[in-house]
Design brief:
The protein is α/β, with parallel strands linked by helices. The chain has a domain at 3-86 and 231-313: P-loop containing nucleotide triphosphate hydrolases (Rossmann fold, 3-Layer(aba) Sandwich). The protein is 32% helix and 24% strand. It has helices spanning 54-61, 87-93, 105-108, 115-127, 131-144, 150-153, 162-174, 192-209, 220-226, 244-249, 254-261, and strands at residues 10-23, 26-39, 43-47, 69-77, 80-81, 98-101, 180-184, 212-217, 229-234, 237-243, 305-306, 312-313. Strands 6-7-8-3-9-10-12-11 form an 8-stranded mixed β-sheet, with helices on both faces. It has a 4-stranded antiparallel β-sheet with strand order 2-1-4-5, with helices on one face. Helix 4 packs across helix 5 (131-144) and helix 4 (115-127) runs parallel beside helix 7 (162-174). The longest helix has 18 residues, at 192-209. The chain is globular and about 65 Å long. The relative contact order is 0.14. Bound molecules: adenosine-5'-diphosphate (ADP) and magnesium ion.
Length: 318
């Protein structure tokens, strides 16, 4: 423990994060006043439908947004606001202290380097390991993620399936024992049974390392299985946050209720209407036009309200 975590084990605090993109057709408000904390050791899932702003939140924390992005707010880690750091300082944090697993392994892996070398190289470049020990640790990590043996270490990414490369990427990320792992749709490309297994192993490894995981996913079942807490995002805003079990068993926000009703086990009910434009989102509650419980006052924006321990919801009903 260090003194920077005096705040009930909070490792990363996102406050008032707003991201917009200037485009030919207008300003896209991809994230608006996003606030959450990531606690030490926990897995926090950021869930929501495709396009709601999850990846934008992840990329802004890592300062990986394109130049047309306008970012406001703060992301405080170890006493420093990551959003205000220079590229050099950020490069020192990226990978070593906060690492991100992207959804597309083919963009992140080096196509002409054996996978074992790619994982081991991280330890050599960033942690000063020598050749043999770095390879041994790389093999151990791959093995834990279900790719056992030196034969796998010697493969090139093109010899592996998408799912295998996804595991190589996870290994490359975890090998440096970062304090925070951000996994953006990490199970994409893995079939369902394998996704569960690989993700469970990832959580086990991160637990042993004492790291925290920010899991970004549209897969609610995966979020329920492996996360401690869950933040539900809609059209750039967090609508509800709480313990995953509580959110699943007693969703509060009408959007969360509607989203969970889309699950096959809950009747596959589609949410009426469509997601609003991020260029001209509804004023007030963004779910207002589709909400079965809407009232006149929903035309004004509700604030996030605390409802019970560790539970917050952005809705006038509470
Ligand atoms: N570089 C960009 N320029 C303009 N709009 C963008 C850019 N990147 C993302 N967006 C928009 O921001 C919104 C959120 O995107 P994203 O975070 O990728 O969603 P998610 O990860 O939840 O699927 C989307 O409407 C997307 O089109
Ligand atoms: Mg995304």
């Amino acid at each position: 423990m260090n003194s920077l975590l005096s705040d009930a084990g909070s490792l990363l605090r996102i406050e008032g994060l707003s991201v917009s993109f200037e485009t030919d057709v207008g300003r896209v408000k991809a994230a608006e006043n996003v606030c959450f904390e990531l606690y030490r050791d926990e897995t926090l899932a950021l869930v929501g439908e495709t396009g709601c702003g999850k990846s934008v939140v992840a990329s802004s924390i890592m300062q990986l947004l394109p130049h047309n992005a306008c970012v406001q707010g703060s992301a405080v880690y170890a006493g420093r606001d990551l959003l205000g750091l220079g590229e050099k300082e950020m490069a020192g944090i990226r990978g070593s202290e906060i690492a991100i697993v992207f959804q597309n392994p083919s963009l992140s892996l080096n196509p002409i380097m054996r996978v074992g070398e790619q994982i081991a190289e991280m330890l050599r470049l960033r942690r000063g390991f020598s050749h043999i020990p770095s390879l041994q640790l790389a093999e151990d990590m791959l093995c834990r993620l279900g790719l056992r043996g030196w034969d796998n270490m010697k493969m090139y990414p093109f010899q592996f399936s998408g799912g295998m490369n996804q595991r190589v990427m996870i290994a490359t990320t975890m090998i440096l024992s970062p304090k925070i792992i951000i996994a953006d749709e990490p199970s994409k490309g893995l079939d369902e049974a394998l996704a569960g297994e690989v993700m469970a192993e990832m959580v086990k490894i991160k637990h042993q390392m004492g790291s925290s995981l920010l899991l970004i996913t549209h897969d609610l079942m995966l979020a329920r299985e492996i996360s401690d807490r869950m933040a539900v995002m809609y059209c750039g805003e967090i609508m509800e946050i709480g313990k995953s079990q509580d959110v699943f068993h007693r969703p509060l926000h009408p959007y969360t209720i509607a989203l969970l009703s889309c699950l096959p086990e809950r009747g596959f009910k589609a949410i009426p209407g469509s997601s609003p434009s991020m260029i001209n989102p509804p004023v007030g509650c963004k779910f207002y036009p589709r909400c079965p419980n809407r009232q006149e006052k929903c035309k004004r924006k509700p604030n996030m309200r605390q409802v019970g321990t560790g539970r917050e919801v952005r809705c006038w009903l509470y």
